[in-house]
Design a protein that fits this description.
- This protein has 14 helices and 26 strands.
- α4 (103-124) packs parallel to α5 (167-178), α5 packs across α14 (468-474) and α9 crosses α10 (306-318).
- It is α/β, with parallel strands linked by helices and 487 residues long.
- Bound molecules: NADP nicotinamide-adenine-dinucleotide phosphate and SN-glycerol-3-phosphate.
């Protein structure tokens, strides 16, 4: 494939209609590593005219792609999966350099994505329709039958976030392609090298010209032009609630699937296994420095067991490995994606300190490396109780009973996932049934996988449902053909 070098001479190109193209703008965006500020590569800042070319390529390739058999489309996904595994070290190293991911998480993202591709290839072959008799409805005879099949929507615009630039691009691209759509991928700028590498893999896997195209450029500069483009039939977006809401406001009548922010609560009841609970919470809150939408972002605990839980959490947090992936292989907490992110996280920490929260662990930073931080006695007037850090800081909120826990959990603007830790199945379902979220984990950290499960956010956490078959359904529609038999 192509090796990743750190010099600014390494200019990447975009895939448009099967060709790798520079931008006529001559402008490039430098991608610098969050680990040492070195230049990992440069990507073109595309012009609106080049966006038009990418969209036109996708539009023109659609008919030929949709009439391929699903087996032919699935085979390309399987070939891409094989290429991901063949090149897993190189793309994992790129992830480490480009988004500062720790080695284990980087390798896991690549393997998980290959598994995603293969599962999607199989799921695509199970896309079915139905046939409906007319006489089951009053007033109709048995001379009508509706034959319903699923059809692709057309051109899918996939927009992915920085924290999973390979997996959360494929989670859009693969279901779209297997269903017969063509795709324009706009990767996160900090993650665009990985996104372009992925496009190269798909080309090597045999994707026809124009079926997958890429556009790079800062979302703040070219995002609105891309999302409101006349050739976009569906928007599959993962990112912040702020941007998701903005896209939703400016795009008229374009269907969308949005996975947005979160403030996932770990609710700990008095009978929970606290040792297991503490392990799950620490893993859920601090892996990849909490830069996950499904990270545990608040702990709501029954006060009678709070002291014990906090002690267990503190001990596990102090055991976390903190450092720079360029220097250490096995790490839990790594530098955040940007100084802006680290500043935001430290703003939440300072606010909690000033308003009287009790600092249990962490609380300081070196550059963009923020220590894993735990606050106890966090009250509802503190920003940390409500805002999404996207960083390694988590508040403990003490409550008297499960109803108070549910009330506070539901007062969040977000509704992605929650966990409930208890040994009482009745309490587990009591809490789960009342939580306004897409998913409740019982006795487990909040997490998206396995990737065939439905994954969705409600309220400010998104709209529509991901998860392999759900994504395929989202990017297809019914087509009804009614046979009228002359009796
Ligand atoms: P972000 O800043 O919202 O960016 C997400 C994507 O949107 C990037 O590709 C970005 O491009 C693009 N974008 C920015 N402005 C745009 C515009 N006006 N029109 C179209 N696209 C635009 O999010 P992020 O920093 O990458 O990721 C962190 C956030 O995403 C957190 O809130 C996290 O909770 C959320 N997230 C949610 C999930 C989930 O599954 N629910 C998963 C991961 C992340 P640029 O990079 O060029 O700005
Ligand atoms: O933020 C990415 C979101 O999709 C979480 O994925 O697998 O880390 O729970 P995961």
């Amino acid at each position: 494939m192509f090796s990743v070098i750190r010099s600014e001479e390494k200019s990447f190109r975009n895939l448009v209609n099967g060709e790798w193209k520079d931008s006529t703008s001559g402008r490039f965006i430098e991608i610098r590593s969050p680990l040492d500020d070195s230049i990992v590569g440069r990507v073109p800042a595309m012009t609106t005219g080049e966006v038009d070319e990418a969209m036109e390529a996708a539009r023109n390739a659609q008919d030929a792609w949709r009439i391929k058999t699903v087996s032919e489309r699935a085979e390309i996904l399987n070939a891409a999966a094989d290429l991901l595994i063949e090149n897993q070290e190189e793309i994992a190293n790129l992830l480490i350099l480009e988004i500062g991911k720790d080695h284990k998480s980087a390798r896991s993202e690549v393997v998980r994505t290959a598994d995603f591709l293969r599962f999607t290839a199989d799921s695509g072959k199970n896309i079915t329709g139905e046939s409906l008799p007319g006489d089951s409805f009053p007033g109709f005879k048995n001379n009508k039958i509706s034959v319903v099949k699923r059809e692709p929507l057309g051109v899918v615009l996939a927009i992915s976030p920085f924290n999973y630039p390979v997996n959360l691009s494929v989670s859009k691209i693969a279901p779209a392609l297997v269903a017969g759509n063509t795709v324009v991928l706009k990767p996160a700028t900090q993650g665009s090298l990985s996104g372009l590498y992925l496009a190269r893999l798909f080309q090597h896997a045999g994707i026809p010209d124009g079926v997958l195209n890429t556009v790079t450029g800062k979302g703040s500069e070219i995002g609105d032009y891309i999302t409101t483009h006349k050739d976009v039939d569906f928007i599959n977006f993962t990112g912040s609630t702020e941007i998701g809401r903005h896209i939703s406001k400016i795009t008229e009548m374009v269907p969308a699937l949005m996975e947005l922010g979160g403030k996932d609560a770990a609710i700990v009841l008095a009978d929970a296994d606290l040792e297991m609970t503490a392990g799950q919470i620490v893993a859920g809150a601090f892996s990849y420095s909490g830069q996950r939408c499904t990270a545990v972002k608040r702990i709501i605990v029954i006060d009678t067991v709070a002291d014990k839980l906090v002690e267990l959490l503190r001990n596990k947090i102090l055991d976390l490995k903190v450092g720079n992936p360029l220097e250490h292989e096995a790490l839990d907490v790594v530098p955040l994606i940007s100084t802006k992110s680290a500043d935001f996280v430290c703003g939440l920490i300072d606010d909690a300190k000033q308003k009287g929260a009790k600092l249990i662990a962490g609380g300081s930073r070196t550059g963009n490396l923020v220590e894993p931080t735990l606050f106890d006695y966090v009250t509802l007037d503190m920003r940390l109780a409500w805002e999404e850090p996207f960083g390694p800081v988590v508040p403990v909120i003490r409550v008297h009973d499960k109803d108070e826990a549910i009330k506070i959990a539901n007062e969040s603007e977000y509704g992605l996932q929650s966990s409930v830790f208890t040994n009482n199945i009745n309490d587990a379902f009591y809490v789960a049934d009342k939580l306004e979220v897409g998913t409740v984990q019982v006795n487990n950290k909040t997490e998206r996988g396995p990737d065939h499960f439905p994954f969705l956010g409600v309220k400010a956490s998104g709209m529509g449902t991901q998860g392999i078959k759900y994504s395929i359904e989202s990017m297809t529609r019914p087509k009804a053909t009614i046979i009228n038999i002359n009796l």
